[in-house]
Specification:
Distance between the termini: 27 Å
CATH topology of the largest domain: N-terminal domain of MutM-like DNA repair proteins
Number of helices: 6
Number of domains: 2
Low-confidence stretches: none
Shape: globular
Radius of gyration: 19 Å
CATH architecture of the largest domain: Alpha-Beta Barrel
CATH class of the largest domain: Alpha Beta
Number of strands: 11
Helix content: 10-25%
Structural class: alpha+beta
DNA sequence: AGCTTGTCCTGACTGC
DNA sequence: TGCAGTCAGGACAAGC
């Protein structure tokens, strides 16, 4: 499940090679309802490859954005490189030509079809409501203690589903929500998060995401980078997927439950 | 308007 | 061994 650290790791591998290339042709499964005008990218040069939350946003000539969301199982691979050959799960491909004249084909493999591929006018993301309403980048200066505290105070939602909504902060998914809430000692179902706990959660989100980026993401099952490598963060998880193991802080057995319809692992001993 | 629930999707896993 | 049922969770729409 690619979250911010996974998408950032992909972006860092992708950007140096992609910037400056022209997209000659886009092959995309026409049956995918979340693919919006992908062929509008044809003939246009990529000028930058940025990331907003879990979205990859490539700027194209003519003031267009090429937006890619990896969904649950999305992976990008260069055709016939690093041991990759396309299979039945490739839903879209970008056909380009490297500066040396060789074809460069980027395949988008997405087993569960939850991914998004869209071309929009630059900055006009109303067709992607979560992107349009996306909260601040957690590692940027717009993610402030006061703003985060105010957002938590204003909502009536449980704290974990609120984080997953992408509105208080961008890029936190199920893995890093569990990790950050554990680190901040906050119960994931809490509806009242005061300033002290809000500040702890703010710091915890930044820490778990920054550490995961350093380790190039968490590979639980599907996630891999553009060269096929796995992330190295899975061994450092203390909450997500750690049901039954002793809490590293208080030794209580980690418990799994469902909150907001999502599997949630937390420590009943020290997350209140 | 905002929160909650259900839906999509398909491979992996569980239990009989 | 085979097969049905369940689970996983991104975003988002429908329902309350």
């Amino acid at each position: 499940m690619p979250e911010l650290p996974e998408v950032e790791s992909v972006r860092r591998q992708l950007a140096p090679r992609l910037v400056g290339l022209a997209i000659d042709r886009v092959e995309a499964d026409p049956a995918m309802p979340r693919y919006l005008r992908p062929t509008d990218a044809e003939g246009l040069t990529i000028t930058s490859v940025e990331r907003r939350g879990k979205y990859l946003v490539a700027s194209l000539e003519d003031a267009l954005d090429l937006i890619l969301h990896l969904g649950m199982t999305g992976v990008l691979r260069w055709r016939d490189e690093d041991g990759w050959e396309p299979d039945a799960y490739v839903r879209a491909s970008l056909h380009m030509v490297d500066p040396d004249g060789r074809p460069a084909i980027l395949d988008f493999r997405d087993v569960r079809r939850f991914g998004t591929l869209a071309v929009t006018r630059h900055g006009e993301h109303d067709e992607l409501p979560t992107l349009a309403a996306l909260g601040p980048e957690p590692l940027g200066e717009d993610f402030t203690l006061a703003g985060f505290a105010a957002a938590l105070r204003a909502t009536g939602q449980q704290v974990k589903p609120f984080l997953l909504s992408q509105r208080p902060v961008a890029g936190v998914g199920n893995i890093y929500a569990d990790e950050a809430l554990w680190r901040a000692r906050i119960h994931p179902a809490s509806r009242r998060v005061g300033r002290a706990r809000s500040d702890r959660l703010h710091a915890a989100i930044r820490e778990v995401l920054a550490e995961a980026i350093e380790r190039e993401g968490t590979t639980f099952r599907d996630y891999q980078m553009v060269n096929g490598a796995s992330g190295r963060n899975a061994a450092f998880l203390v909450a997500y997927g750690q049901e039954g193991k002793p809490c590293p802080r208080c030794a209580t057995a980690m418990r799994k439950t469902t909150i907001g319809g999502r599997g949630t692992t937390y420590c009943p001993g020290c997350q209140r």
